[in-house]
Design brief:
This protein folds into two domains: 253 residues, q2cbj1_9rhob like domain (Jelly Rolls, Sandwich), CATH 2.60.120; 72 residues, no CATH class. The strands form five sheets. Strands 1-8-5-10-3-2 form a six-stranded antiparallel β-sheet. It has a three-stranded antiparallel β-sheet with strand order 7-6-9, with no helix packed on it. A two-stranded antiparallel sheet has the order 4-11. It is of the alpha+beta class. Bound molecules: 2-oxoglutaric acid (AKG). The site of 2-oxoglutaric acid has 13 residues, from β3, β9 and β10. 2-oxoglutaric acid binds next to β3, β9 and β10.
C-alpha cells in the first residue's frame, strides 16, 4: 500500500508520511504544503488576474447594500456579512477560484469545495480560536480557511493573528474539557473555556503570536486547528476589508463538535451547501452516507423556484429538533411556515429551528404568518 492509501483519512498536510507525499507535488504547491504542515498557515498571492477589480467592487458596493451608513456614523451595527456569495458573483468567484481549489485539493488529498463566506469591512478583534470546534469533518481536519486581504494591513487596522505551531495540538473537544452534553443546547455557554485553554496552552508552550501584515491581494490558508483571531484595531477610523472563505473536502461528514452530544448518539451533521453548485453535500464517512443526508437522499429532486416545492416534500418533524427550545427561537416561530416561506431551505433539507438560530435570525428571515 502507498503511504497515501495507508492513511487515506488524514489530510496530506497532517500525514506522518508528509515527507514522502510532498515530493510528488509541483514546487509551488510543495512550498505551500510545507508551510501549512510546519506552521499551520501558508501565504500566497491570490491567483486571479481580476482580483483587484473584484475586491474594489465589493468595497465600493457593500456599504450601501448592507446599510453601513449607520456604522460610519458611529452606531453599533453588525459588519460581518455571512454568505454574500448567494447574491454577489464576485464573492462567489473568490470563494470558488479554481486555482485555489486545485492547490487545496492537492495538499489535502481530497477535492476541496467552498461552503461559507464572510466579508468584513473592519477588523474583527475576535479572540483566538480554532475553527475545528465550529466546523469539523469526519475524519477530522479536512477543513481550512482562506483569508484574503482587500487592502494593505498593518499593526493599526487589526491584522489577523495566529499562533504558529498550535495546529499540532490535539483537537480537544467537549469531553476533554469536561463540558456536559446537558449544557450543549444553551448556545455553547462554555465556549469561553476553549478560548482560555488555547491562550493558556500557547503561553505554556511559549508559542509566539504572529500577525499577517498582508499586502492587498495576498491570502493566507489556515488549518482547521490553527488558533487565530483578529488583533485589536488600534486606529478605530481605519477599515480592514477582507474575505474569509471556509472550505471542506469531499467524501467526509461535516459537523459542529461544540454542539454534538456524541455519546448519546446525537451528532449535528451540517447541511452543507457547495458554493460552486449551490447544492447540498451529502455527509459521508468511509464511503457510507450518514445523518440527514440519508433522509435527504430519499426526497424527490425539487426545483426551489416552484411555489409548491415545499408541499411536495415530507414535512419536517419538528419534535426531532434539539433547537426547538433554544432561547433564540422567538415566540410564535412556525417551522412549517418557515420552510414554506423559504424554499431554498427545503431544498437543502435543513432543520428550520437550527437554521433560524444559526442564520435566519441575522438574515432577518420571516418566521410566522403576520
Ligand atoms: O478576520 C479576522 O480578524 C478573523 C476571522 C476569523 O477568525 C474567522 O473567520 O474564523
Amino acid at each position: 500500500m502507498s503511504p497515501a492509501t495507508l492513511l487515506d483519512g488524514v489530510p496530506l498536510v497532517e500525514s506522518p508520511f508528509f515527507d514522502d507525499l510532498v515530493r510528488q507535488l509541483p514546487p509551488d504547491w510543495a512550498r505551500i504544503a510545507t508551510d501549512l504542515h510546519r506552521q499551520g498557515y501558508a501565504v500566497f498571492d491570490f491567483p486571479d488576474k481580476h482580483i483587484i477589480e473584484k475586491m474594489d467592487g465589493i468595497v465600493r458596493d457593500f456599504p450601501a447594500r448592507y446599510g453601513w451608513g449607520a456604522w460610519e456614523e458611529g452606531k453599533s451595527v453588525s459588519t460581518r456579512i455571512q454568505d454574500a456569495w448567494q447574491t454577489d458573483q464576485r464573492v462567489r468567484d473568490i470563494a470558488a477560484n479554481p486555482a485555489v481549489l486545485d492547490i487545496l485539493s492537492a495538499i489535502y488529498g481530497r477535492r476541496a469545495f467552498p461552503f461559507q463566506t464572510l466579508n468584513f469591512p473592519v477588523g474583527t478583534q475576535q479572540a483566538g480560536h480554532a475553527d475545528y470546534v465550529h466546523f469539523n469533518s469526519i475524519p477530522d481536519r479536512f477543513m481550512c480557511g482562506v483569508w484574503l486581504a482587500f487592502e494593505d494591513i498593518d499593526d493599526d487596522n487589526g491584522p489577523l493573528f495566529y499562533y504558529p505551531g498550535s495546529h499540532r495540538w490535539p483537537t480537544y473537544q467537549n469531553e476533554h474539557l469536561g463540558i456536559s452534553h446537558r449544557r450543549i443546547n444553551d448556545q455553547f455557554p462554555e465556549y469561553h473555556r476553549y478560548v482560555d485553554l488555547w491562550e493558556r496552552m500557547a503561553q505554556k508552550q511559549g508559542l509566539k503570536r504572529e500577525t499577517f501584515k498582508a499586502r492587498k491581494g495576498q491570502a493566507l490558508i489556515w488549518a482547521a486547528n490553527l488558533v487565530h483571531g483578529g488583533s485589536v484595531q488600534n486606529d478605530p477610523y481605519r477599515t480592514r476589508w477582507s474575505q474569509v472563505t471556509h472550505y471542506f473536502f469531499e467524501d467526509c461528514a461535516y459537523t459542529t463538535p461544540l454542539a454534538n452530544d456524541t455519546y448519546n448518539g446525537k451528532v449535528l451533521y451540517r447541511d452543507i451547501v457547495d458554493i460552486r453548485t449551490g447544492k447540498p453535500v451529502a455527509n459521508v464517512v468511509s464511503g457510507e452516507q450518514v445523518g440527514w443526508a440519508l433522509r435527504r437522499a430519499t426526497k424527490p429532486d425539487l426545483d426551489p423556484s416552484r411555489k409548491d416545492a415545499a408541499a411536495t416534500l415530507p414535512r419536517y418533524d419538528a419534535t426531532e429538533s434539539r433547537f426547538a427550545s433554544h432561547p433564540e427561537i422567538p415566540e410564535g416561530f412556525d417551522p412549517a411556515f418557515y420552510l414554506d416561506a423559504h424554499p431554498d431551505l427545503v431544498a437543502a433539507g435543513v432543520d428550520p429551528y437550527q437554521h433560524y438560530v444559526l442564520f435566519g435570525k441575522t438574515e432577518g428571515r420571516r418566521f410566522r404568518a403576520e
